[in-house]
Amino acid sequence: MPQRTFSIIKPDAVRSGHTGAILAAIDQAGFRIVAIKKESISIRQAQGFYAVHKERPFFADLCAFMASGPLVLMVLEKDNAVADLRQLMGATNPANAEEGTIRKRFASSIQENAIHGSDGEDTAAFEIGYWFAGYELI
Ligand code: GDP
Fold first, then answer.
1. What is the Å distance from ligand 1's center to 116 Cα?
2. Can you give the residue ranges of every domain in the chain?
3. How many CA atoms, within 13 angstroms, populate the side-chain half-sphere of residue 34?
4. Cα(132) to centroid(ligand 1), Å
5. N or C end of the chain: smaller count of CB under 10 Å?
6. Which of 16, 23, 14, 22 lies closest to 41 in space, CA to CA?
7. For residue 105, what pLDDT is reported?
8. How many Cβ atoms from other residues are within 10 Å of residue 92's Cβ?
9. Around 114, how many Cα atoms within 13 Å sit in the side-chain half-sphere?
10. Residue nearest to atom 11 of ligand 1 (CA)
11. Opening angle at CA 110, ends 17 and 105, nearest 5
């Protein structure tokens, strides 16, 4: 059964010209791009998206970073999409990411780590609904 997940090409990767290479990696891994849009988001929009992290010490920095430039919002679909995207992304800290993963290839720090992917099916449903309207997902 195909499953949907939510992903962001973060501002660091867009800024450094890696959007195309990351999309190619996603495509080669067998994901269907259900929806995609490039946007610049506000700090308030970032705070709402990352609300689960609001008590973490890096919350303010993270939200400022996400609002620091254009990013690419995507809904992706394949069998086992949530887990398979997490594997393709690699560990949060690029220093710990496996060879060949998107974060190993393109991330520069634990914060500026190139890509977001939902960490579970419930999170994916919340995140897709936060950024995309139903009519964009047909
Ligand atoms: P993810 O699921 O791998 O993206 O990681 P988390 O859900 O734990 O964290 C969300 C995002 O917050 C990460 O992707 C990073 O951009 C950022 N982040 C996580 N841990 C740290 C940290 O220790 N310091 C800073 N500055 N940012 C962090």
1. 9
2. 3-133
3. 20
4. 23
5. N
6. 14
7. 98
8. 13
9. 27
10. 111
11. 40
Class in CATH terms, 3-133: alpha beta
For each successive 10 residues of the chain (138 residues), what is the average pLDDT?
97 98 98 98 98 98 98 98 98 98 98 98 98 96
Residue 4 in 3-state DSSP? strand
> For the purposes of burial, counting CB atoms within 10 Å of the CB of 138, is it exposed (0-12), middle (13-18) or buried (19 or more)?
exposed
What is the pTM for the complete model shown? 0.98
Which atom of ligand 1 has the smallest separation from the CA of 65? 16
From the number of C-beta atoms within 10 Å of its C-beta (0-12, 13-18, 19+), residue 31 rates as buried
**Token pair 């309207």 is at which residue?**
133
